Amino acid sequence: MNEVTAINLLIEPDTATRARARDLNARLRHTMPEGFAFDDTHAPHITVLQRYVRTPELEQVLDAVGAVVAGADLTALELRATKIAHAEWDTPATGIASLMLGRDPRLLALQGRLIAALAPFATTQGTATAFVTDPGEPGVNATTIGYVERFVPDRCASHYEAHLSIGMARRRDLEALEAEPFKPFDVHAEAVAAYQLGNNGTARRLLRAWPAHGDTSPTPAA
């Protein structure tokens, strides 16, 4: 087992949002097949916090997350997809597209509590071995490794905007998608989960999940 694990604490969105994300992902894959696909080990998600943690303390990490989310009803979060935007990524002239979901103060407060809870277990010593990879898959890229290392503080508090990544594409295709009319829609939380990350920020291996309505009983990984 790796000494460091890259984890993603995230919100699993409702069924309709997952379906919309999969449709958009399929469209992007049509133009860039080598981009990631949503499947049984690539889950559509809304990242709240990414961190490197020491693997021998992983169960303590998950217990700490459970203590934070216990009793927290996230079903009332006001998340609304208002547009598609992209961020430049590892390969020049390519990027990752996301549904942009705004800034709900309750989600920012949850992020702050999770940062504090994980502080005793966090490290900045993550490498490619901290991630889930498939046999024959190219190594985890430097952008992904650095993104997790700098998530705190670069993508927290006032720097954080909730988003749901939908896929990778070349810049010209992303810009064409962003220029199309977009009908906003509400996004609802179904669960909070901890995943081990894969390349490009994908949620690969479920570690533990908790209902969004604040039930204290976790759902263990299969």
List its traits.
alpha+beta, 6-stranded antiparallel beta sheet, 3-stranded antiparallel beta sheet
Quantity of strands, as a count: 11
The gross shape turns out to be globular
Q: DSSP strand (E) fraction? A: 25-35%
Number of helices: 6
Structural class, from secondary structure content?
alpha+beta
| Count of discrete structural domains | 1
Order of helices and strands: EHEHEEEHEHHEHEEEE
Indicate the low-confidence ranges by residue numbers: none
At the fourth CATH level, what is the homologous superfamily?
Cyclic phosphodiesterase
Write a short abstract of this structure:
By secondary structure, the chain is of the alpha+beta class. The protein has six helices and eleven strands.
Which secondary structure elements does this structure contain, and how are they paired or packed?
Blueprint: E1 4-13, H1 15-31, E2 46-54, H2 58-69, E3 79-81, E4 83-88, E5 94-102, H3 105-118, E6 122-123, H4 142-149, H5 151-154, E7 162-170, H6 171-179, E8 185-187, E9 189-197, E10 203-211, E11 219-220
Antiparallel strand pairs: 1-2, 1-9, 2-6, 3-8, 4-5, 5-7, 9-10, 10-11
Helix pairs in contact: 2-3
Describe the structure.
With 222 residues, this protein is an alpha+beta fold. The chain has a single domain, classed as Cyclic Phosphodiesterase, Chain: A (Alpha-Beta Complex). 29% of the residues lie in helices and 32% in strands. The protein has helices at residues 15-31, 58-69, 105-118, 142-149, 151-154, 171-179; strands at 4-13, 46-54, 79-81, 83-88, 94-102, 122-123, 162-170, 185-187, 189-197, 203-211, 219-220. Strand 10 (203-211) and strand 11 (219-220) form a beta hairpin. Helix 2 (58-69) runs antiparallel to helix 3. The longest helix has 17 residues, at 15-31. The two termini are 18 Å apart.
